[in-house]
Amino acid sequence: MQTDGRTLDLFPWLYRPLCLLFLLAVIIGVSTGGVSAQSFRFNDVYTTPFGPAYADILLKAENFLACKPPVGRTFSYALCYYSGPAIGTPVPTSGASYNPPLPCTLSADGKTADCTCYGLTTEEYPPYVPYFIDINSILNLDLYLSTIAVCGHGGANCNPRQPIVANTAWNKAPACKAANHNAVIPTAELISVFSPVKSGDYPSGSTKCSAGKYAGCMTAPCYHTGKFDSAGEELVQCKCPVYDGPFEVGQVGAPCDANALTPKASHPTNAPAQPQYVWSAAHDPKANPTPDSPPATGCLPDMAGGKGCPLYSPTTSYPVSRGSALCKQVCESYKNSIRQGTSTPSSKGVQVAYSCDAALCTTLGIGQTTQSPSNPLKKANLLKNACGNLAEQSGIQAILALEMADGCSCCASQVCGCSNAGVDIDAETQVEIAKLNAKQERLQITPQCQINGTLCGARAP
User: Angle 168-171-172 (CA atoms, 0-180°, nearest 5)?
Assistant: First the structure.
């Protein structure tokens, strides 16, 4: 729908006349499940003056809503930020290692793309680690309207502010709640969001492209395929709407045409046309070279990248600390967070909240003075060993609440004074932590033990 510039300036948001609304079922073929196909309305509204929801526009940092994954159960989400060409890209600092091919195949009518994306889970990246939804890119119209009603048009009302100790959610955005309950898109088994956890495996920065078709995958429906890459990461299939306009690719030095990276093979004249590929991309109208920057003023606990909160420091005075009611809950959570089914019959199991704190944040890059060489397979295995089944443990909410209140990462047990070897951390967990620290050092990751003298573990007697 065309409008003149005056109309766009005066009514850039809700009062702009709605473009044609249609069911996503038209795009993906069939729709059943938690959100009925009959009630679902695809968001074709110009959520910003620069394009509709599926253009994935980012105007300011607060547009990214930081969502807390659910605890008490395993939760999966998709990451399509690096999808596009039909070949794998080199891992930085490792010339012999390649990321998996994550092709986005353009449909015959050019309106959608089938994108292979990472399937991430709280088994590997626990609920400590947030995911992000661009408020401008919510593909469910009614969910978009309810989210801006709560969060404001840009998301400012749902940005992390001075935290309330008893509040265990990063924000109150309806889009986050819907995503956690898989109630965004009909038939979707999971949805596409943004997470920075893979940023170390790809060239940092972005590539600005003047115009072209790209897949707007934010909140797009995704499906399990049963496939995994060489690092054991699940690969899922996402159905993304396509937009034509300026965009940024989430890797520096990438060609704007994803087909430029496709190997050229002999192609008989009578054979079907070769697939066409597009990047999964977004657009920052201010030409921000790093459109993947997380939102939030201040920091977010346990998050990779520049916005992650620092590790525990013994010289910092924390507003919520030992002796507080919340710390009592925190210490109880750490001591009782036992990973069942992985130990010998005579053992009690590893206290997984301690082992996860010992490896999660440092492996994601927090507290590191230099970047460790990328090794996706070994890092993925390290995190699975350290944090497996943590999402299913009770009491994690208290740990998350304290880290939000104190602005630190993987720090709750140290702040609350319950990280004492032999008193709080049992012998079996001490041995596991020592093994995890040794594995980190072999990957050139500096563990917390060397940074702040905590979570050092001990060798088996």
Answer: 100
